[in-house]
Amino acid sequence: LSTWSAVPAGPPDPILGVTEAFKADKDSRKINLGVGAYRDEHGKPYVLSSVKKAEESLTAAQPDKEYLPITGLPGFTQNAAKLAYGAESKPLVENSIAVTQSISGTGALRIGGAFLGRFYPHAKAIYLPVPSWGNHTPIFRDSGLENAPEKSIVLLHACAHNPTGVDPTQEQWREISDILKEKKLFPFFDMAYQGFASGSTSRDAFAVRHFVSEGHQIALSQSFAKNMGLYGERVGAFSLTTVDPEEKARVDSQLKIVIRPMYSNPPVHGARIANTILSSPELYAQWESEVKGMADRIISMREKLYDTLVGLQTPGQWGHIKSQIGMFSFTGLTQPQTKALADKAHIYMTADGRISMAGLNSSNIEYFAESVSKAVK
Ligand code: PLP
Q1: Alpha-carbon span 98 to 70, nearest angstrom
Q2: Mapped to the 3 state alphabet, what secondary structure does 93-141 carry?
Q3: Are the C-beta atoms of residues 346 and 27 closer than 8 Å to each other?
Q4: Which reaction does it catalyse (predicted)?
Q5: What local confidence, expressed as pLDDT, does residue 150 receive?
Q6: Which of 40, 174, 310, 341 is the most buried if burial means most Cβ atoms within 10 Å?
Q7: Which atom of ligand 1 is nearest to the CA of 231?
Q8: Is the whole-model pTM more than 0.90?
Q9: What spacing in Å lies between the alpha carbon of 162 and ligand 1's midpoint?
Q10: Which ipTM value was assigned to this complex?
C-alpha cells in the first residue's frame, strides 16, 4: 500500500483552473479572460520597458546571488513603503513602519495573517468582503484567523476591488475610516493594484494614506505583480505602522521569527528590478507612464465593450462595464451563461462572471461582445 493512498483529490483552483481549460481548447477564436494578468493590444504578455531597462542595468552590474536578509532587500522595502504611504507620511518620516519583503501579494497577506494570528491582542477574527478575491478565505483560514466578532480585523481592498471593480468614493472611504475608528476595528489593506485603478499610483493610494493620516494603525499588503508586470518574479511587501522606532524594532524582530521558518528569506532578482525602478527618477517616470498606459488601454476596452454590447441591442444594463475600474469587470453573466460561453464560443472566465478586461483587444472584442450578446438573448 502506498504511503499516500488515503490522500483525497482536491478540487482545481477556481481561477487557475480556467487557464487549464483554455490551454486545452484548440479553437483559434478562444479567449482567456480568467486570470488577472495584463495583456497588450495583441493579447500577449507585456514586459514593461522600465523593467527591461532595469534588468539591463542589473546584468551590467553583475550583482552576486547571496541570500537576502530575512526581511528582504532594504532599499526595496523602503521604496515600496514610500510608494504606498507617500514620502510625507508621518510614520514613514518617523521611521515607525515595520516592513518586510514578501513573496508577492499572496505572501504579504500570508505573513500578515501569521503575524496577526500570533500577536493581535483582540479576537483573532477577520471580516472579508463578499465577494472577494478567491484566495482570501484560504489564506486567512490557514493563518488561524476565524469569523468575526467586535474589535475584529477588517480586510479592505485598497483600490481596484477584485472581483467587482467597484471601489468606495473618497467620501465613502472617509466614512469607512470613521466607522472603523468608532468600532475599534483594525484595517488590513490589500493593495494588489496600485496604479491600475486610475492610472495614478498616488490617487490609488488614497485610502491607505487617508487611514494613516487619520491615525489608524494599519497592516498593508503590496504586490508588484500587476503594476510592474513582475508576476512570476513574486515581488511584494508587508508592512505594519507602529507608534515609534522602538516598537517598530520589536515588531521587526517578530516578523523575522514568523518568516524564517516559512521560507527563510525572499528571492532577490525581482526585488532588485523593482528597487532599480523605484530609486531611479528616470525609470520611475517611465514606469508611471507605463502603468498609466496599461490602465488607459483597459479603460478604452471598457468603452468599446459597452458601445458594442449596446450597439448589438444586448438585453440588460451594461453601464457598469464603464463605471467599474481596475483589471476586472463583474459582468453579471450567470453561471449557465459563462458555461455556454466556454462550451460554444471558447471564451473562458471565472464562474462568477468576472472577466479580466486586459484579455480583450481590438482583434477579439467584437467576437466577445457578439458571443455575450448571444448568450444573454
Ligand atoms: N490580492 C488581490 C485582491 C489580488 O487580486 C491578487 C492577485 O490576483 C493578490 C492579492 C496577490 O497576487 P500576487 O500574489 O500575484 O501578488
Answers
A1: 13
A2: HCCCEEEEEEEHHHHHHHHHHHHHHHHCCCCCEEECCCCCCCCHHHHHH
A3: yes
A4: L-aspartate + 2-oxoglutarate = oxaloacetate + L-glutamate
A5: 75
A6: 341
A7: 15
A8: yes
A9: 9
A10: 0.98
